[in-house]
């Protein structure tokens, strides 16, 4: 008996599941992915909330304060958007809308990842600006944005095109 994971069977291999079974499986997989991402959002949000109560916070300049508030709000938006699939499921549960829930929730997950990437990049900008100054912060943040864009959006898109 092999314990190795099953290789990707590709789009041409049938799973022998009904559309409802596929929707059930896709929803379970999506909600599991969102649980993992939501934990990251909560950690960033907690860090940002705590930051406002540190002794050095009043020393932030106007730019840094603006980055802080923007990043805090982006984290709130990411959290709200990433939690919306749960609310959709609760609100439409047992109404025969599972496939619609999965389709909409998938788009919401992508939007939530976008806002999370912006929030994490904002946190990087704030911290590196305070620690290293504006020029290194701009370079590091630009690289961070490119990394998120490449890994979270471009890579999946290119793989869908194959």
Quick recap of the structure?
The chain is mainly α and 162 residues long. The chain is built from 4 helices and no strands.
Description:
This protein is mostly helical and 162 residues long. It has helices at 19-51, 62-92, 98-132, 134-160. The longest helix is centred in the C-terminal third of the chain and has 35 residues, at 98-132.
Task: Tell me the radius of gyration.
Answer: 20 Å
Oligomer state equals: single chain
The succession of helices and strands, N to C, reads: HHHH
Query: Unreliable runs, pLDDT <50, ≥5 residues?
Result: 1-6
Structural class comes to mainly alpha
Distance between the termini: 32 Å
Shape annotation: elongated
Number of helices: 4
Largest β-sheet summary: none
Average pLDDT level = 88
Query: Roughly how much helix do the residues carry, as a percent range?
Result: over 70%
Strand content: under 5%
Number of strands: 0
